[in-house]
Design a protein that fits this description.
This protein is of the alpha/beta class. It is built from 10 helices and 13 strands. It holds the Pfam family DUF4336.
Length: 271
């Protein structure tokens, strides 16, 4: 893990925030894509009604994070939301060995090839073998979609009680204001960040992000991507917690329909 990608002392710059008290907690950190572009990173903790905790896209497990986890409940689920958001799976599983680990196909093999810590995957999402149940307590609160057509093999979860959509790289909401708020660095500074930010913004018509997703992210299997997006859009979410950029409150469904408008229209036509 290069210091050019993640902070050397994450405890000093992490923002731990209760988005929904005792239900949704976000762990926001600075993150530099390719070591230069400010995109931010975010882990999300969801407290189920049973008291169990589900952790999505885990970030650095600092002492403050451990204390927060301890105040909320027992970690029973740890999910890597795609083939890129897995760096901290090892430390989290070591700290909470009884938790079930979830991830997409290709990730176990990727981790082995990279020499990452050994982590037993309880659930590996595959296009050929859809997972329809995790556990009664988990199933009672979550919808999920495995977007196998996504370039990074994306898992998307919807926490029904809080109407919260949790994503990794399905869509961005740059600039990463909250994630860089404790660094003393402007989240929008730097020419590469400005360019990438324009391509991954939800502001205005979001036409550049729409183009990136249409011509890039979904290009290898656009029909499959369209179908996944259409299923996600049927969920009743109002908030979007993405890994990169700020949390979208209240207007999440409208923003989602704007960013994925071309895909939703294509899905209606069966394309």
């Amino acid at each position: 893990m290069s210091s050019k990608l993640v902070p050397s002392d994450p405890a000093k710059v992490m923002v731990i925030r209760d988005v929904v008290p005792r239900v949704i907690t976000t762990l926001s950190v600075p993150f530099w894509r390719f070591g230069r572009i400010k995109v931010g990173g975010r882990g999300t903790i969801v407290r189920l009604q049973s008291g169990a905790l589900a952790v999505f896209s885990p970030v650095a497990l600092t002492d403050d994070v451990k204390a927060k986890v301890s105040s909320l409940g027992e970690v029973k689920y740890i999910a890597a939301l795609d083939a890129e958001h897995h760096i901290f799976l090892g430390p989290w599983h070591q700290a909470y060995p009884n938790a079930q680990v979830l991830g997409p196909e290709t990730l176990p093999e990727k981790r082995d090839k990279q020499g990452n810590e050994k982590v037993p995957f309880a659930f590996v999402f595959q296009k050929s073998k859809p997972i329809t149940s995790i556990s009664p307590e988990f199933d009672a609160e979550f919808d999920w979609e495995y977007v196998s057509a996504h370039l990074n093999k994306e898992l998307v979860f919807h926490h029904r009680p809080s109407k919260t959509l949790i994503t990794a790289d399905l869509m961005f909401n740059l600039p990463a204001t909250e994630q860089f708020s404790k660094t003393g660095v402007d989240a929008k500074s730097g020419i590469l960040t400005k360019i990438f930010g324009a391509l991954q913004s939800t502001a205005g018509t979001a036409v550049w992000q729409k183009r990136v997703i249409w011509y890039g992210t979904s290009a290898s299997d656009r029909k499959g991507f369209n179908e996944s997006v259409a299923r996600i859009n049927k969920w009743g979410f109002e908030r979007i917690v993405a890994c990169h950029g700020d949390v979208i409150e209240g207007e999440g469904k409208g923003v989602f329909e704007k960013v994925f408008g071309w895909h939703l229209e294509a899905a209606k036509k069966g394309n």
